[in-house]
Amino acid sequence: MADPTPTPGIHHVTCVAGDPQRNVDFWVETLGLRLVKRSINQDDPSTYHFFFADAEGTPGTSMTFFPWADLPPGSVGAGQVSRTAFRVPEGSLGYWEERFEEYGVDYDDRIERFGETVLPFRDPDGLPVELVEVEVPADDPTVPWTEFVPEEAAIRGFHSVTLALSDPGPTEELLGTMGLEEVGSEQDAGGERTRFAASGPVGKYVDVLPTARNGQQGHGTVHHVAFQTPSDEEQEAMRSAVQSAGLRPTQQIDRHWFRSVYFREFGGILFELATSGPGYTSDEPLEELGERLVLPGRFESRRQRIEAGLPDIEIPRPESAGAGE
């Protein structure tokens, strides 16, 4: 069987949150990402699904959340994405430290990793997140959203995810099957961190870190990480390669804005393969993204009942912003 087309990198990362309004306030106002889609969890329509991204919802920029208010806090450990990192322009971490102080964000001192400067912090649910300073090229595919954060500091899509694994070996082989190449390793506070690089410009890095600590899903943890397989043909080739490696991927599932295949990798982390299209503007104009509750086709007939069961939320607006504005 021919090798599949290498994945360009991360497509989106989906996490578990608690209070939906607090989640929207933090990711839109504090971090300056755009709410590009307000929808529901298609497997649990009693729960919102929020998509935060760059100005146009470019693949490789979407951090998404299921706000399951009734779940307890989770704990990060083996079998999970333990950290999600975003790219920010060189020289902008000072801005972010000042902003975090103003907004009361829980953050740590800067660290150096693989020659880059990293600012670790946590969202209101305790989710571990990082900002990494990079040189953003002139032809970068991301489009900064500048309603709350100036362009020279705005988040520019994913930098990397860290996979916490009790036995990294099989997963490292799988990453090779998916087209990522090992590019280095260095000692981390938690052990030997190994970095793999995909072929694209955004969300290209996956770090693997061994850990013996068990994780538990709940608020403040990652539900799954999705990798780009831009076309149906590329996705099917990757699905076949994953299946040949001994894993059990699902059939393709239509998620309305992309088509998906899911599987648990050898360490138990839920991976998704996601197509590039049809995209977030397939059912809303670009200028109106996120302004209303969008229900994929089969749910539209249940709109009244679904809306009645969801809490009201307000999208932060610059003219009514709080601290720091």
Automatic annotation (TrEMBL):
GO MF annotation, one: dioxygenase activity
Entry keyword set: Dioxygenase, Oxidoreductase
InterPro entries per UniProt: Extradiol_RC_dioxygenase, Glyas_Bleomycin-R_OHBP_Dase, Glyas_Fos-R_dOase_dom, VOC_core
Pfam family, one: Glyoxalase
SUPFAM superfamilies for this protein: Glyoxalase/Bleomycin resistance protein/Dihydroxybiphenyl dioxygenase (SSF54593)
VOC domain: residues covered: 9-134, 157-276
Gene3D superfamilies per UniProt: 2,3-Dihydroxybiphenyl 1,2-Dioxygenase, domain 1 (3.10.180.10)
Superkingdom of this protein's organism: Archaea
Stated name of the protein: Ring-cleaving dioxygenase
Species per Swiss-Prot/TrEMBL record: Halalkalicoccus tibetensis
